Amino acid sequence: MSTFVAALLNSLDIGMLLFVIASGLTIVFGVLGVLNFAHGALYMLGAYFALTAVRWIELPFWAALVIVPFAVAILAAAVERLALRRIYARHPTQALLLTFAFLLILNDAVRMIWGPGYQIIDPPRALTGTFVLAGAVYPLYSLFVIASGAAVGLAVWLLFSRTLIGKRIRAAALDRDMALAVGIDVPRLYTLVFAFGAWLAAFGGALAAPMRALGPAMGDRIIIESFIIVVIGGLGSFPGALLGALILGALHGFGGRWFPQFDIVWPYVGMALVLLLRPHGLLGRSA
Amino acid sequence: MTGRGAARRVTLLALLAVLAAWPWLAPYFAIFLMTEILILGLFAASFNLLFGYTGLLSFGHAAYFGTGAYVAALLLRDMAPPFLAVLAAAAVGAAVVALVIGWFSVRLTEVYFAMLTLAFGMMVYALVHQWRGLTGGSDGVAGFPLTAPLPGVAVNIADPVNYYYLTLILVAVSAYVLHRITVSPFGLILRSLRENSERASFAGVPVRRYRLAAFVVSGLFSGLAGALFAPFNRIAVPEMAHWTQSAEPVLMTILGGSQYFFGPFLGAGVFLLLRQWITSYTQEWMFFLGVILAFLVVFLPRGLLGLFDRWLGGRS
């Protein structure tokens, strides 16, 4: 029982973190049609910004968690204005290539600024302990990650379904030209959505920082896993990102416990199967 | 056009002459560099048969490159047949893997195709990484002998100059074959699929079958490149099948120009020269590569050859 509970908590912990990150990827794709290869690098930037905020500026971790995603979002907005905006009209694979270039730049920029070694951040003092659930001993911080993921997910869902800006974004995603015609400032909305996607990635990075080692290639694994999640759930589908993240979390939490040797291959098998049987994902709209 | 065609032929012959005389012209280390440029140029050119000509962005081409590398390394380690037989077996092996993966992948297009090829590529990576009994896992396959090219041909290909010539001949022949394919009726149909696959399908072209054929040819030559690469490095490692290896031909092709047959070769040359040059100052050369790539995608989507073309007053 206790191993099952531990595996379940592990799945949720990984799954909710991946959900926060992957939801940013899927929202950007759904609205802009850009599959952002640099999304994992933005996650990494979130983690390293948090490191700097906590260790060098000596902010409390809570403050870093709030400020860091906005800093990364502002950076992303600038990049959207300067580069990404120029290629929306082109073939979608061009955006994949451009964002791949951002990935290369950010990976090495992090190596230059923070060094190639691994670094760690301590979790805030209030969350350093453990708790016991059905015999499984588990770090308190993981519970915080699960709760934060759920809270952010709920907030994003409310934003899209209940607010005017959310309605405008959905309108622009459905029909860009019609949205422009009824007076929605679509170019500004695109900047906003790209920045918001970066915000989610960076929030995930700052959130993950106290439980994962920070290294310059930490985003590479995350971007591949995020791709898998959004493909499984359906590219552009927000509930799909939740489903995909929970599936991937479960593959890690349970598969890692009982079939460790296949840990790296199952996600790819799942992604390939979904692409072949339901190319638009489990919860995606067929275009 | 005939003037341009003649100029192109003269340029090509001059280039071949320089490549043939390279071991006399260049310092010793440059022989290794040029061998690598030729091998990765072939890899990028075979990738571009799918990307530039057929309009499919594969992010899993390291699967065939890696298959070629491993088949070659394992054959040399366990059976040591003549080297050309090793290369042929490796290329065919990679083509078979491409046939299986391609059979599934050509059902999709655009980012879905890119993601599916990425997934399959990583499955191949996982396989060579986890199958320790055969592949040695993350240690790779090393310590294999380099055999004579053919029985009775006593050329020691462990000598870098001989290996360079072997590579040059095989890459030149492969490039010729690939070029013939791109200008053949088959190649023209591939281009029509890139431009408008729906219209091609209305005209009666079996779209998937043509895409699959291009996929397999591309995999075959990628496998040959991998089979040349592993003995060149004296080792086959799982990273040769990783998605970061798949990214290299993509970068090289964009750099050189995907609309041009020789774009991937030029891209491979510039890529490796830049790496050589920048890594002598800093380890973080990917940063500069990223800046260059971003600049090219935004301002010069036709690559370096597109830029030359414009300077020479060609197509706008």
Summary tags:
heterodimer; A: 287 residues; two-stranded antiparallel sheet; 11 helices; B: 316 residues; mainly alpha; 2 strands
Report the radius of gyration of chain B as a whole number of Å.
Answer: 19 Å
- What is the number of helical segments of chain A per DSSP (H or I, 4+ residues)? 11
Approximately how much helix is present in the residues of chain B? over 70%
The description of the largest β-sheet of chain A is:
2 strands, antiparallel
What is the string of helix and strand elements of chain A?
HHHHEEHHHHHHH
SS-based class of chain B: mainly alpha
What is the overall shape of chain A?
Answer: globular
Radius of gyration of chain A: 19 Å
Overall strand count of chain A: 2
Q: What count of helical segments of chain B does DSSP give?
A: 13
Plain-language structure description:
The complex is a heterodimer of chains A (287) and B (316). Chain A has 287 residues and is mainly alpha-helical. Helix content of chain A is 71%, strand content 3%. Chain A contains eleven helices and two strands. In chain A, helix 1 runs antiparallel to helix 10 (238-258). In chain A, 51% of the residues are buried. The two termini of chain B are 15 Å apart. The mean pLDDT of chain B is 90. Chain B contains 13 helices and two strands. Chain B is an all-alpha fold and 316 residues long. The interface between A and B is large, with 41 and 38 residues.
SSE diagram, text form:
The complex is a heterodimer of chains A (287) and B (316).
Chain A: H1 2-32, H2 39-55, H3 61-82, H4 92-114, E1 130-133, E2 136-139, H5 140-162, H6 164-174, H7 176-181, H8 186-208, H9 218-233, H10 238-258, H11 266-277
Antiparallel strand pairs in A: 1-2
Helix pairs in contact in A: 1-5, 1-8, 1-9, 1-10, 2-3, 2-4, 2-8, 2-9, 3-8, 5-6, 9-10, 9-11
Chain B: H1 2-25, H2 28-53, H3 62-78, H4 83-105, H5 110-130, H6 132-135, E1 141-142, H7 160-183, H8 185-202, H9 207-233, E2 235-236, H10 243-256, H11 263-279, H12 285-299, H13 303-311
Antiparallel strand pairs in B: 1-2
